[in-house]
Design a protein that fits this description.
Elements lengths: L1 H8 L8 H4 L9 E4 L2 E4 L6 H17 L4 E4 L10 E3 L7 E3 L3 H8 L3 E4 L3 H9 L1
Parallel strand pairs: 3-6
Antiparallel strand pairs: 1-2, 4-5
Length: 125
């Protein structure tokens, strides 16, 4: 989206990846959120890493005095309205990722990459 690129050029974006902030590598085994935990496809509990990364995202948002966050939908960290159901079957459910949950609790407005129109309205106000 050209607006996103413009905001980047203007230095208005603060890049974050809660999963990397939590110490997880790229690439990494996919994970899904279910019943308060985040488990990888191979059965490893990575909730602590996701929690650590979410805390860092909240800290950084406060430090940078962000207006809002634009995060990647469907992610166990960053999904703002849809996440995978925790069965690794590809089924999506209504829900939010751990970082989104914590950012919202901290008062940050969170949007997905599909809501750039709404973000533009917010920042123009």
């Amino acid at each position: 989206d050209p607006r996103f690129l413009k905001w980047k050029e203007e230095g208005r974006l603060v890049p974050v990846c809660p999963e990397v902030f939590g110490g997880l590598k790229v690439p990494r085994t996919d994970a899904q959120r279910k019943d308060g935990e985040i488990i990888t496809r191979d059965g490893r509990d990575v909730t602590a890493e996701y929690l650590s990364g979410a805390c860092e995202a909240v800290r950084l948002a406060a430090e940078e005095n962000v207006v809002c966050a634009i995060l990647k939908e469907k992610s166990p960290s960053c999904g703002s309205s849809l996440i995978y159901d925790g069965t690794f079957s590809g089924k999506l459910i209504k829900g939010q990722g751990l970082a989104v949950e914590m950012l919202r609790q901290a008062g940050v407005k969170v949007f997905s990459e599909n809501q750039i129109d709404e973000v533009e309205i917010l920042i123009d106000e």
